[in-house]
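Below: protein 1.
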Amino acid sequence: MTIYRYPDEDLQEFKELISNRLEAARKELLYLQGVITRKDETGTEDTENRYMSVEDGSGAMEREQLVQLASRQIQFMNHLEKALIRIENKTYGVCRVTGKLIEKARLRAVPHATLSIEAKKMMNTKSN
């Protein structure tokens, strides 16, 4: 049985890519958390609209959107951290369905991918 895995040099390249994306994601999350905190403290970022937003609920909607963005960012960071663990285990880049290597171009675009395009298509056809 052939064992598929990326060589250590490739794993190192992906580790750097993922680490950079994780760092950027952390900064984005801190920014979002800061905006949410400021909105909680003032109602909205500018005080003139504070009274209007109480009536129309736009402040609450905007806050909810920011919370959703922060939540997605946390989920994205979690996926990236799991990808780093797979790199350490030398299982990174192996499709969890087919066992074949996921294309490098796909991993560069979606570094936390665990499915090859082939597997993703198979799963989409089954769900339709």
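Below: protein 2.
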Amino acid sequence: MTPPAPALRIIDTHAHVFSMTMPLAEGAWHTPAAEADPPLFLRTLDEHGVESGILAGASISGTNNDYPLAACDRSPRLRTTVIVAPDCPLEVLQDMARRGAVGVRFQLRNVARVPDFASTEYRALLRHIADLGWHVQLHDDARRLPDYLPGLEAAGVNVVVDHFGRPDLEDGIGGEGFQRLLRSIAGGRTWVKLSSAFRLGSDALVLQAASTLLEHAGPERLMWGSDWPFAAFETQVTYTQVLNDLSTWVPDPVTRHRIAFDTPNLFFRPRHDQD
């Protein structure tokens, strides 16, 4: 007899917290449309039965990580990635780790000048990331992933790629970028988030990407994230909708539980599980 599926436990591995009064970086691509503060995010998690959340460093704040770190200070249910300069001192990173930081985010989409991960500064930063037990959170279009993945693989850091790897409508899952992502996953240090499907522009492409990732990566290398509060899509997307999307992409309840909880729980070890 097949054992019953476990009750779905959920960790949201991709969300942001914004304030309409927080300082923004010069040239920020988005201005928060409404308050999306930590208390509101925690209430949203509670309303949907989600246990904890991993915040993603927000590029609109540049290297100012005060807001998400303060959110982690206030709640052991939250952790965050940060955006830092490549010469960020180790002691600063260590202090961020004590406050709940778990990785460094490289938000490279639409960024013309991309990092040289072979440079002295970036090699030092990647060593610090590895030594802290952190990960690199990578966001860019799939077609540019081959520019970064070899250097990150050579550095020996864990990599979490945002938003299905962002395959585009022209290249799809057959494009070299998405195929390079699959090879990186096979190498054992790369994970992918099933998140922000509404940004990909095609339900069919999302289903193809989800199915291919399940086939090649399995639930051990996949996690789910909401991308709350859905920046630039605030009036078009709801938390209920993105939760329901996971059931569409992953119909099997056991596999869905592994993606929604088991894999991120092992990867991030949320702080409330350590108390």
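Strands lie at 11-15, 52-55, 78-82, 101-107, 135-139, 158-161, 190-195, 222-225.
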